[in-house]
Amino acid sequence: MRQAEACAAEAVAPNPVECLVRSDRMPHIWCPGCGIGTTVNCFARALERCGYPLDQVAVVSGIGCTGRVAGYVRVDSFHTTHGRAIPFATGLKLANPKLKVVVYSGDGDLAAIGGNHLIHAARRNIDITVFCVNNFTYAMTGGQVGPTTPEGAIASTSPYGNSEPPFNLPFLADSCGAVYVARWTAFHVRQLAKSMAEAMEKKGFSFVEIITPCPTLYERRNRLGDGLDMMRFFKENSVIDHKADTRTVGIGFQGQIVCGNFVNRDRPTFIEAQNEQLKKALGSRFVPYGE
Amino acid sequence: MKADPKGVLTGAHFLDGDHAACEGALAAGCRFAAGYPITPSTEVVERICARFPEVGGMFIQMEDELASSIAVIGASWAGKKALTVTSGPGFSLMMEHIGLAVMMEVPVVFIDVQRGGPSTGLPTLTAQADMMQARWGSHGDYEIIALSPSSPQECFELCVRAFNLSERFRCPVFLMMDECVGHMTEKVVIPRPEEIEVEERRYTSADPDSYMPYAAGSDLVPDFAKAGDGYHFHTTGLTHDERGYPVINAEAQNRLVRRLVDKIRKRAGEIADFEETDTEGADVVVLSYGITSRVALRGIKLARAKGIKVGHLRLRTVWPFPEERIQALGRKVGKFVFPELNLGQVVLEAQRLVGIDRVVPVPHAGGSVHDPEAIAAAIEEAAK
Predict the structure, then answer these.
(1) Is A28 in CB contact (< 8 Å) with chain B?
(2) Which of B:47-66 have CB within 8 Å of A?
(3) Global confidence as pTM
(4) For residue B62, how many other CB atoms are within 10 A of its CB?
(5) B348-357, pLDDT tens digit by residue?
(6) Nearest residue, CB atoms, A87 vs list B62, B76, B208
(7) Contacts of A9 (CB under 8 A, 6+ apart)
């Protein structure tokens, strides 16, 4: 909080992002035209909108370009192992239910090596928020094919074009029981910031997929231009449809990107369900956890 | 600090080693556990599930051992004493997070109830073949602490000690049980809470603006800040500086890794824990740990009946290996005999310290304990 107060005390209207960023770690490692920084800007605005004391916010990342987000945000922040940000966050949240725990990681980290944890955290309805930045590739390691790479796209390990069908992440999260599921692109900064805030305020497992450009690897290999060209592509090829059936929102190579806040439902969180079961079984002997 | 009475089941009980380890964890103040079922360790978490709701603990059965081993690290960052339990195949999966706990300096306890391997091996039968994996299993260079109980009573006592050491040194600590000790049922006496010494985490009192998460004093162990306390700290598995920020160069690596190793290596004497019997004037000393210590007793008795002067040094802490004591004994004792339920692991340490020719291994591939006659025969051979 101290940082936010310091910002507020300045005569000039504070930039909400500055309060959240570890400016002593700038410049960051992200490439020109990369969309990850844009999403962090939206995250800062979402936090401001939610008004949480920053002392109570924790950011957990895995490994990869988006995995570096944890290193740049001025909250308790954890840069963990590849694919395991969600189970780390699960332990952190269950051990201190008062924390607002945000997992911030990339598509390769969350959907490939960490895919098992994603589906189980959604199933259990662990009260955490997952921001999944999807740039269609493993960027940190040089642009390999991944579980979100569109069919036909060129990557360093699919030099003749990807032949695997990618995951439709909103559908995956939805079908596993996430209570809030949305998708936006790095172009939709206002909608994204609002959606990030809604996701964090939602009790239970919330999931926001954010489509971003990777000009250095994905765009270059596929001759799609630079970061700005990709933003133009997002602008011209995105359709906002909050009511879209998540089964239909898969992304083809340079195909339409359906955006929206697709799912918003309520069901008991892991702790609520466990407390209820134990209360039923143990009666007054049981002191509900986290209360 | 004394133990929180809520978790202490004071009295004399008839418990197996797995259940006794659970009671040790509760007495030590463990209030978070994550696990994935695997024989022969599952009874530990089964008892935790039953006991935790009464003491305000949180147990979650995760989707695999990778998840369990990092959930406990997350929980520890929130200030809970945390535990996970597994056996061979699960232990292999946990290796990456042992490295993370070392690197982030997180107090956490891993119990490995050893079974025969490699791979799926002997799910229901004993072995002591994960000892070198405990020492070196995660990639990179580090020191580790591993304790080895030889009875249900020690499963209780050493589990408490494992938590205490993990808090004192801010590192993962292993309780290296085995199937025999885990499934052996004996009398276990749990003392009164005020008789159980429990170490609490050393939290920083620094101002949040000047707090450096990885700045350590003379004991090389940094003060802890937990999530939610307003320190807005950063921690990473990358090589980092005192601020916890990644620094990718040889100088930072040298400074960090040396401190991580030295904080344990320089205080190995304080961690060392062994029981020595009749080593004074002995011609041969049997070195052992875990279940093999009990089989060795019979072997020693058989050898003594033949007039051989045999001593016994039983390790309760295997890692760090008690180098000083073994070297000192090596100056007085001619030969050592080291039975283990593996084909030669910890024996290599003893051979390194006193010489290959002076330590006779008694290897066993696992699946049962040694025949005491084999240990006696090795003692006789050594005494020649």
Answers:
(1) no
(2) 53-54, 56, 58, 60, 62-64, 66
(3) 0.97
(4) 24
(5) 999 999 999 9
(6) B62
(7) none
